[in-house]
Structure formats: C-alpha cells, structure tokens
Amino acid sequence: MSTRYLGARVRRNEDPVLLKGRGLFVDDVRLPGMAHAAVLRSPHAHARIRRIDTRRARAARGVLAVYVHADLGALGRPLPKLIPHPALVHHKTQYALAADTVRYVGEAVAFVVAESRYRAEDALDRIDVEYEPLPPVATLEGAVAADAPLVHEDIGTNICAHYTQRVGSVEDAFAGAPHRFRERFVIDRGASCPMETRGVVAAWDPQAGQLAVWDSTQAPIPIRNGLAAMFGLAEQDVRVVAPDVGGGFGPKVMMFYPEEVLVPFAAMRVGRPVKWIEDRREHFVATNHEREQIHDAEVAVDAAGRILGVRTEFLYDSGAYIPYGLIVPIVAGTTLPGPYRIPNYHCEFRAVFTNKTTVSPYRGAGRPHGVFVMERLLDRVARELGLDRVEVRRRNLIQPDEFPYDVGLIYQDNAPLRYDSGNYPACMERALELIGYAGWPARQRAWRAEGRFAGLGVACYVEGTGIGPYEGSRITVEPSGRVFVATGVGTQGQGHLTSFAQIAADALGVAPRDVSVQTGDTAVFGWGTGTFASRAATVAGNAVAAAARAVREKAQRVAATLLEAPAEEIELDGGKLYVRGVPGRAVSLGEVAAAANPLRFAMPAEWEGPGLEAIRYFAPSQGAFSSGVHACVVEVDAETGMLTFHQYVVVHDCGRVINPMIVEGQIQGGVAQGLGGAFWEKLAYDGAAQPLSTTFMDYLLPTATDVPALEIAHIETRSPLNPLGVKGAGEAGVIPVAALVAQAVEDALEPFGVRITEAPLSPNRLRQLIAEARRIP
Amino acid sequence: MKLDGTNTLAAPVDTVWKMINDPDALRRCTPGLKELKEIGPDSYEATLNIGIAAVKGTYSGTLKITDKQAPRHYKIALEGTGGAGFMRGEGIVDLEAQGDQTVLRWSGDIQIGGLIAGVGQRMLGGVGKMLIGQFFKCLEQSLEASGETGGV
User: Fold this and answer.
1) Is the ipTM of this complex over 0.90?
2) What residue segments make up the domains of chain B, in order of their start?
3) Which CATH class is domain B2-146?
4) Is A19 helix (H, G, I), strand (E, B) or coil?
5) Is the model's pTM score more than 0.90?
6) Residue contacts between A and B (CB atoms, under 8 Å)
7) Residue B44 is inside which H or E element, if any?
8) Nearest CA in chain B to A127
9) Phi, psi of A157 (to 5 degrees)
C-alpha cells in the first residue's frame, strides 16, 4: 500500500463548504410548522420550589405548551448516570426539569413551546415560581466544612466520592527524603465557549412512529440509544444527526442535557417539530463547566533533585450533580506523573458537590491540572536546591529504552496506565534548541538592563489518548468511482473528513478529494461511542484503515476476474486497477464497483457477496500516550500585569502524523484555549454562588491578538498498539499552558520574588501579586 | 453589595420623618416604582421597573418598614422577583437634627440573583448609588415644593 497521502499536508475536504457558508448547523435546520422552545432557569443557587403557576404563560398569545416536572410522566426520573465508578458512592444526576429543589443558577425549571422564540421567551416572564431560598454551597472548601449546607440533603454529605491510587510507599519515601516541599495549588472554573452553543431540533412522525433529532452533540449514537430507551422506541426508529458542529471541546459529549430530552418530548406532545437553540448567556450556566480543583501536594527529592515520591490530596468540584462520574479527577491524578520516573506516588481526591453548574470534561479534562501540579513542584525543587529547572527535569525523565513504561496506576479507561512508546528527552532537547535555552541567561540580562521583565518557561506533559472501547467504519465504493467512508465518530472541526479520507485514499489508490467521509448521523453508521479523549484518529482511523484494506482486497479479487490475472498482481492507483506492469490495460475503480454488483449470471464465490463494501471495527486494549514539551518567552508589564509572548515553541509527539497541517491546527487552537485557562478565562461566582461572568464582557476569551504564532516541531514515535502507529493530538495544545505561563512569569518577575500557585491569573491578579511581593522585603 | 451614604435635608427632623413614611412620597420618589399598594401598616406590595446594565426588568414584591423609632430610625426591607432575576435589599435609616436641618444617614445591603447578577453585578454599586441619589434628590424637591423646608 502506498503512503502518498498519509503524512501529507492535504488541504481539508470540509473547508470549501464551511468557508462558503454552506455548512448545516442545528440552527440551520428549518422544518415546516416548526415551533420554538425556551427554558425557564433558576435564578437561585439553592432553593426549594414551593409553587409553580404556569396559567398566565399558558394563556399567552402564541404559546403551545408549558411543561414543568409534574408534566413529564415517565421522563420525570433523574437523567441517566453516564459513567459509574465503584468509588462514586453518590451518583446524583439532575431531572430534565427540577422536581422540588434547584441546586444551581441556570437549572431548568420549566419549558415553553411557542410559535416563535420571542413568544416563548415572553411567556417565561409569565411563569410564577415561588422559591424558598436555601443556604448555598458557594466554594469547594466551604463544601467540606463541618457546618456546610447540603447540596443533596438525602445523602447527608457533600462528598460523593473519595478515591485513592498509590504506587510504592510515599510514607517510606518521604520519611527518608533529604528534601520535601509542600504547596497548595488552586485552579478555578472555566467554560468551553464553542462558537456554536448547544441546540436541538426534533421532529416526530406519528404515522411511521419515527423520531428524528438534530443535536449539536459529540455523541449522536449514545444519544439515539438513550432516547430510544427513554421513549420506548426501537433504536432504528430514532435518528440522531449531529450535523456540522461548531466546536465541542468535551461538554457536548454529555448525555443527557435536559433539552436533549425535553425537545423530543415536546415535539411528540405538541405534534410539531420543535427547535431550541441555547443563547450565549444560557451557555454560561446551562452547559457544563470544568477546571475547579484544589491540590495539597508535596514532593520528596534527593540532593540531586531526583524524585523520591510525590503525593497530592485534592478536592474536585463536580458542581451540583455528577452525571459524568469521576473521569476528570481520575485523569488529573493519572496525568500528574507525566514523563517523569516517580517510584512512590499517592493520589487521593474527594469529589464534592457545590451549588454551581455541573462539571464534565473540557479539553484537557484534568490533564492541565495534573501537569500544573507536577511542573510547579519541579520548579520549586529547582529553586530550593539551586538547580537549573531543565536539569531537574532531565534527571527525572523516563528514557527511550524504558518503554513500555508501567506507571503503576489505573487510567480512565480502567486499563493499566502503561506508556506504549515515546522519546521524552528528544522532545525536550528539540524544544530547548528552538527556544534558545542555552543563550537565555544573556538574553534575560539584556532585557533586565532595559528595565524589562522577560521570562522563559519549559513544561512537559504526557497525554493519554486513543482509548477504547471501539469505533467502526463502513467503506463503500459506488459505480461512479466515489468512495464513501462512514463512521460513528462525529466531527466538531477536527478535520475528520480529511484525515479519514487520506487513510482510505492510500489504500484504494484514489485522491482524498474523491473520498466522502460521512459522520455524525446514526442513519449512516449506528455503532460507536463518540468523539472525546483525543481518540478519533487512533480508534476510528484504524477502523477506517482496516475497512479500506478489506475493500482493496475485494476490488483486487473482482478486478482479477475481469482482467483474468491473480488478485495479488492487481495494483490500485489513480482510481484504476491494472495487472502489475501493464498499466495500459486498466479498469476504473467505478467499473469494478459496478461489476461487483451484477444484475444477472452467477457471481464468483470468491467475491464473498456483492459490491465493494466492508465494515471493520478497531478496539484498542488500552490508550496510546502522546507527549510533548512547550517552551515560551513572555514579557510581563509590571505596571499593568499584561503579558506579551515573544516566542512560543511546541514540540509534539503523537506517533505517526496523518496530516501535519491538521495536527498543527489542533495544537494552535489548544494553546489558545490553554492561554485562556492560564491567564484570561475565569468564571467568577459571588458568595451566594451567583455566577458573575456570564457575558464575554466579563468572561475574557483570548482574542487573535492575544495568541502568539507558534513554532511547532513534530517528533514521531509510532505507537505499537495500532496498525497505523498513530496517537491522539486533540488536547495536546491545552495541557501544559498554565504550568508553562506560571513558570515563565515567575522567571520574569524573579527580581520581585513572585510565586504562582494558581490558575488562571489575570492582569489584575498579576498586578496584585507583584504589589504583594514588593511589600515583602 | 453594601452601600451607605449621608444626605443633609433642609427641613426639621419631624418633617423629614413624615416624608419618609408617606406612601405618596415613597411612590413619587422611588426610582422605577410603578405601583405601591398598602397591604397593612408599613407594609406594601411594590412593582419596580429598574434597569441595571443592559438588563431592564420588572420586579414585583414587598416593601416593609420595621423597627420604627420615631422620629429618628427605621429599617426598610425590599424584596422583588421578576424575569430578570431577584433582588433583596435591607436598609437602615437614621435621622439626626442639626439646627433646622436634618442629617439622614443610610446604609443598605443589596443582593441580586439570576440574570441581573450575571450581567449587572459590576454595575450594581454605581447603579445603586445613582438610584438612591435620585430618591433623595426627589425628597429634597418635595420638601421645597411643600414649603416645609426649615429656616426659610
């Protein structure tokens, strides 16, 4: 099989449609007779609902229906528990509409369907709800205080899980260690803010008994299966389409958000298609958040800075419910060791309910937290021992001959945390070369001589990617010669329509533009789990490769009959099949596809059925582990607290690269979001758990001018775990950014002795830290 | 959100006391007040129309005056809910004679929730001060108009 396209900078198949504005997003779905929905949300962080009176709303002009919890019938149960875990003792999920208690600002209380969104929103004002405010749990530490109010009264605690993982014995390691350093790290809340907010359209066909749902989701197949179960329908009578999706980043892999149940419910009840599109303000409270954790961490090292042990005890804020289970804290704790040899490790967390929006994975999904803790601890070690921070890292890196490397923990996929392959020193040295580490002291002195504060940062990470359970693909060649690749893994901008096309194109001897990839429609492919955890290229990509190989072999067998030659001697190239050495006598791939589906006469038994089509699945035994090093030079304006990035380098190893341009795009976008989490984006809450930054005026997303141009280098250490040798790259950009910025800013502000143990910072916060450091002599 | 301030009114304490207990004056001078219906002694049903930042909302709720120590002290509690969220406020008013004038000291604690908190919190302090300023300006004008100002 040639590799003409695998590894090439192939232009994206999806872009002509998207750039011409011809994409189909959920809000572009307009059906005849479609009604519009709006959601009444709780203004209280914690309150009992004494009474809801919907009479005035029902009587309003243009209103078709108003639903509250009591109207939901069998759907009035708590929404499904997504990922159970033995340690998750209290797996609380919310109701589609609050029953008797609201537990966060933004929780859905009533659902209005009307002739237009305007009518629906006006009707929300006419619903009278009498609340009895209850004391809210507004902070993570407040949640575990002795006298804390209870988010869920029935369980008598705010702690829903307490989980510990250990390697070796930290007690012994710490007891004999010459140096121990302890820190508290605080990471605050953020929102994913995709360009396209959530949205759902549903249409019910009562004659066929079929439900069609368009949903801006990362997991259309589990949504279909769940809806079928909830509504008592056959899975094949429910079609869920995730059309073009304008960004997912994790929160859109939640199953279920209330609206995903309420919109189909309303469409069936009202007898008309119903549309609901989340507005931006709703997004800030009604779409899951991430990031809030507090770590009490400690490292023990020998005199040379070699790690003897690490321990962290942390609090994880799940928000008011915990549908997604313990994925984020488990990923945080298992990402923490990173590329370093840590013989003794103790990781213990408590997952805690607060009266805030629910938390589920957002790009990075705990990885940035783990890396922040580990990298900050190593920076502390270097400072305390008077060692070079890079040298400390070098002394602890896992070496290339140590793979597979068993960290000794259980990863989020319930498989052992075993690094499959990698070359961490090579990534490190390449990054140092690109950032100019050797010449840094002289450069920094030159900046300081001008009265300017510049700092350099270097941070490492290992990213767990490509976890199971499985994905599949069906490849079909039509008589037109077009190749169709269907898979259950939807796309939210990652370039699947191109990467998967490249894989199939090489196998079938066609160009990627002749390959149509179809994703995100359960009617096209109905097996799969969704797009998450940087797994599409690895898991679905290898399924595509296997299906393409099968179709290739089938095409060779059919062409062998047509060309009267052995199948092994048939070549595929340029959309044609020919006997090796005789390219002049060729048949086109389309002709072979037509011949493979005869109308009359006997079909050769060795064809094993009609058509050029194959379905294959790939189920990895465990995840594949990518890695990388980020380095940057940042200048701090000590008066304003603003940052200017003068250099930003990423050296990245995601195994074999399918399309460097797409990987670089992923990294660029990830770094932008990482900078948001490091410096700009903070979901602030007041003492009554009222969210305060619910517009882009107060919640600062980095803009194009805030994101530096990156210098990216690829190192390819192939994964032995899959035939393509690929690993994931989706979250890499975001993971080490907060750790990197903290280190670089500390380096820049070394004359003031500023210490950073929190993320995100902000210009205000940085000014405050500088002022505090200046006051301390 | 805690706010406080001091205003000097050109009228004797008794006149000011009467004014700040007069439903008509409250109705006239409370910014955005659409309705004030007496439902008991010192207890009213109120409808307010207030904009904070970009959020204009109508809030209906109650206004109660308690802890009355004529003519120098009372507590006022305001509670309202509407489409833009809810607001709760508690204030303390103290009057002190200063010659023919009256020094009025006030302090309050306002809590807002829902939409107005999410988009208007930053503005709350400024808007709160402005609205309270309008209230006292109106009281002063009412005192002048009624000719009950002292020392003239």
Assistant:
1) no
2) 2-146
3) alpha beta
4) helix
5) yes
6) 50
7) strand B43-52
8) B83
9) -160, 160
